[in-house]
Design brief:
The chain is an alpha+beta fold. The protein has one domain: Beta Barrel (Porin), CATH 2.40.160.210. It is built from 5 helices and 12 strands. The protein has a 12-stranded antiparallel β-sheet with strand order 1-2-4-5-6-3-9-12-11-10-8-7, with helices on one face. It is globular and about 55 Å long.
């Protein structure tokens, strides 16, 4: 297995401390706080460790405080429901004695029912698009060290943007973006594993969509962005080691908050998941 993927899988594996109590390591990827996708993925790992015979179909999470990249995170699971078809879990993430995150997740036994979906957008295939590796080298060299590390870190996913991402000279654009992504190597046939990894990668690019109509960029030093909440719904079986299309749009930004939602399509056009996120999008008042 590719070492970048192996490192990520190890990060999402938790140490069980006691019944319903788990501990996960933190990883500094250059972001101002623990990457939100890491906490989502680890919390989902903790919840899934207490469920048998069901797979996650939805999660709703709130980011309460900045996570400390230098300290482990403890996850406490409340077994809210074990029903005939559904199981519900509430997970609280704790650092330094304080809650930094909480999440509710619902798991379901596989069953058949009505089936319909919206159509996948007509976009170029990923093979015809360049890798979206981040800002050009000449811009990276001028960025603060922590921001530079965020883009220079070896990533376990590759991204190919349908619309070019303008890091250096952002312009006002419609609040919509499509990005193809996939894991950098093959993964085992484990549906719960692929859903945990999708939760991890879903935190990339989503909130950024809310900045597109305003001609700014996450690289601007006067822009503050942070996730407030994150929700996901898993509709159909999926594989993150095959190309997935992240079709994102931002219907609204107001009150120093941006809102974005997204559909995740498999290469064959199946709608496999949906996501929504609201986050702080604020301009610094000081120079």
């Amino acid at each position: 297995m590719d070492q970048r993927l192996a490192d990520l899988l190890q990060l999402l594996e938790l140490e069980q401390l006691e019944v319903n109590l788990f501990r996960g390591a933190s990883r500094d990827i250059g972001s101002p706080q623990v990457f939100g996708g890491q906490v989502l993925g680890q919390a989902l790992s903790a919840a899934a460790a207490t469920v048998e015979g069901r797979v996650v179909h939805s999660l709703h999470a709130y980011f309460l405080r900045r996570g400390d990249c230098t300290a482990p995170i403890v996850y406490e699971v409340d077994r809210s429901l074990d029903g005939h078809s559904f199981a519900n879990r509430r997970v609280v993430a704790i650092q330094h004695g304080q809650q930094i995150f909480n999440m509710t997740a619902s798991f379901q036994v596989a069953e058949a029912g009505f089936d319909h979906q919206m159509a996948m957008p007509q976009v170029p295939p990923p093979e015809g698009l360049p890798d979206s590796d981040g800002p050009p080298a000449q811009l990276l060299a001028r960025l603060p060290e922590r921001v530079r590390r965020f883009f220079e870190q070896p990533r376990p996913f590759e991204f190919r943007a349908v619309q070019p991402i303008e890091y250096l000279h952002p312009r006002r654009e419609a609040p919509a973006r499509e990005i193809w992504f996939r894991a950098v190597g093959a993964l085992p046939d484990d549906e719960m594993l692929h859903r945990r990894l999708l939760a991890y990668v879903s935190d990339f690019f989503l909130l950024d969509t809310a900045t597109l109509p305003h001609g700014t960029s996450l690289l601007r030093p006067n822009l503050i962005m942070a996730s407030i909440d994150h929700a996901m719904w898993f509709h159909r079986p999926l594989r993150v080691d095959d190309w997935l299309l992240y079709a994102m749009e931002s219907p609204s930004a107001s009150g120093a908050r941006g809102f974005a939602r997204a559909s995740v399509f498999a290469r064959d056009g199946r709608l496999v998941a949906s996501a929504a996120q609201e986050g702080l999008v604020r301009l610094r008042k000081d120079p």
